[in-house]
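Deadline looming. Please check this record:
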Amino acid sequence: MAENLFRGLFDAETAGVIPVADFMICVVSSLILGFMLSVMYMYRNTYSRSFIVTIATIPAIVCVVIMMVNGNVGAGVAVAGAFGLVRFRSAPGTAKEIGVLFMAMGAGIITGMGYIAYAFLFVVIMGAVDMFYARIDFGTRKSAVLARTLHVTIPEDLDYADVFDDLFEQYAGKCELLNVKTTNMGSLFKLTYHITFREAGREKAFIDELRCRNGNLEVSLSYQESSVLEMM
């Protein structure tokens, strides 16, 4: 019984015509797998509705492609891969999005080859691993929650090279001046820094001291943009 469960539907008839019943079983199974992957991805991840719908339907699309090329996995993967990567021509994908996209394509390939039980086993294992990593915040740098990007405006008579050095030494463990820009016909400087606070909860006190130092001109503090050329 167990051997039959994990036996491919098309093991003995790869080159023949696929019965409608088997076709429907594979497509419906792929849609269920896509739904499972979508629900798993929504756990503790940011996402858009269009991406979730895409993940839910990709396994069925890839499954049909694999079945229509009569088990020629090389041709099927080439065609399905071209379809799957279309989404990333208009919007850059994060590493996690690309990973779940390939996971959905993998589930579709397995289903398209007729191995329904293996496809469900694959999705359950990989989905559980992904949810576990999301739950424990695997790979998150603890210092990242203290990293900020600071934009501060100062009058031209202040020396921007060391005007805030004492404040940075008091509040920040790390500081880097990224950009200097003149504005208001050269009467003001706009400075951009990457800073890492020594401890959480001191943002307001830091901003208050900056405002006293720069004459209450504009100060902006935001979560730090990535400055590393990497697939995020």
User: Anything to note?
Assistant: The chain has two domains: 2-135, 142-223.
